[in-house]
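Design a sequence for this backbone.
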């Protein structure tokens, strides 16, 4: 043996040449067990007079060479079996038949089968069995061997049964090892999938919280900014209207704080009290439009009904963000119209303003920024769609969200099909 495999097989080195404790050869236990069985067993046979010659150093070598060869059984299983079987047969020519000096070839035969080579194991076992019968059985008289070395009918039948058992155990051990490897692989894949799902859920939760904070802070801070400008402008000439502007600022800031606490409520510990603020949804549309900071006309068509919580909240946030954009871009004299249309399988929202800031570009470029992108992402996450753009001197945000009625069992799966090609 040369290269990385040189030296004792139970001290394998890694490619850097340093000893790697993770690769300590587990076969050293079989070597020790084989040596103990052979040496102690042969010594016991000698004490009972079942070894017919004095145990000389050569006899001890025959007893030890097979177990020592087991150290290489994983790399050369057939060769190791041949060496161990030859040494055991040689010792069998001077001792009564016994299993104690056949432990090494049995372990080597087990290893051949465990490597997935049952045919080689069967052929090797058959050759060793035939050699043993020819030498210690049929050829004992011609070779001048002691009569006690000849196997009886019992030994002649038990030996092939023991060999077959070792082959079976080796094959079963290989199957079990493959099964355990597959189980560990499946567990590792499941663990990776679970970790990936947790990371994805955490990312989606961060995105949701960021979107909620953007909607809350963008809406209320925009309102505060507008009212603060009004208050500064009217402070000297119309103090009463300035007072109203400051009151609106106070209300908007308090509402912003409440909604921020509600958004961050998902991070609260289990022993904290649940938030008492009502869930955001179209039921609070009146409060939203009243505090919008500009005239808003609301129109509801269709039969109002309870919506899925995620759809109800998304509808509220989209209207809130659209009104914030109106306040930012549509000029000081802008007004907005909000339409809510309860369709049989969907909810349609339309937010339109009738003003445009002086010098503001026409076309989709006017929708550049994070507001429209956030609203579109929110709609698409629920299977809906959003369109936004200038129309008749103003700007229109049109949204279609899946919202099946309670008696409609079709659900969201066929929403996209039934609304295919519908212009929002």
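Sequence:
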């Amino acid at each position: 043996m040369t290269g990385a495999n040189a030296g004792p097989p139970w001290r394998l080195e890694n490619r850097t040449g340093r000893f790697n404790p993770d690769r300590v050869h587990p076969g050293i236990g079989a070597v020790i067990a084989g040596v103990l069985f052979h040496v102690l067993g042969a010594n016991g046979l000698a004490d009972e007079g079942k070894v017919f010659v004095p145990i000389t150093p050569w006899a001890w070598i025959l007893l030890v060479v097979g177990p020592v060869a087991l150290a290489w059984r994983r790399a050369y299983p057939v060769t190791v079996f041949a060496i161990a079987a030859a040494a055991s047969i040689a010792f069998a020519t001077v001792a009564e038949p016994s299993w104690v000096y056949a432990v090494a070839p049995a372990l080597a035969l087990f290893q051949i089968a465990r490597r997935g080579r049952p045919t080689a194991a069967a052929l090797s076992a058959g050759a060793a069995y035939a050699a043993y019968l020819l030498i210690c059985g049929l050829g004992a008289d011609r070779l001048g061997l002691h009569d006690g070395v000849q196997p009886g009918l019992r030994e002649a039948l038990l030996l092939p049964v023991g060999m077959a058992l070792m082959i079976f155990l080796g094959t079963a051990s290989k199957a079990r090892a493959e099964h355990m490897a597959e189980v560990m692989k499946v567990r590792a894949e499941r663990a990776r999938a679970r970790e990936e799902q947790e990371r994805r859920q955490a990312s989606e939760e961060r995105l949701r919280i960021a979107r909620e904070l953007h909607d809350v802070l963008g809406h209320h801070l925009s309102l505060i900014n507008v009212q603060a400008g009004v208050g500064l402008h009217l402070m000297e000439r119309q103090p009463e209207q300035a007072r109203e502007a400051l009151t609106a600022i106070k209300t908007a800031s308090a509402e912003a704080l409440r909604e921020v606490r509600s958004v961050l409520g998902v991070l609260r510990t289990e022993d904290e009290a649940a938030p008492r603020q009502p869930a955001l949804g179209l039921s609070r549309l009146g409060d939203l439009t009243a505090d919008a900071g500009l005239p808003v006309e609301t129109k509801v068509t269709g039969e109002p009904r309870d919506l899925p919580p995620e759809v109800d909240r998304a509808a509220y946030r989209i209207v809130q963000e659209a009104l914030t954009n109106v306040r930012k871009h549509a000029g000081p004299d802008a007004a907005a119209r909000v339409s809510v249309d309860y369709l049989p399988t969907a909810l349609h929202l339309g937010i339109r303003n009738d003003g445009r800031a002086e010098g503001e570009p026409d076309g989709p470029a006017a929708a550049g920024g994070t507001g429209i992108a956030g609203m579109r992402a929110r709609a698409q996450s629920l299977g809906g769609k959003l369109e936004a753009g200038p129309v008749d001197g103003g700007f229109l945000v049109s949204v279609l969200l899946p919202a099946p009625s309670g008696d409609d069992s079709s659900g969201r799966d066929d929403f996209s099909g039934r609304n295919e090609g519908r212009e929002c």
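Residues 1-26, 269-275, 357-368, 409-424 have pLDDT under 50 and may be disordered.
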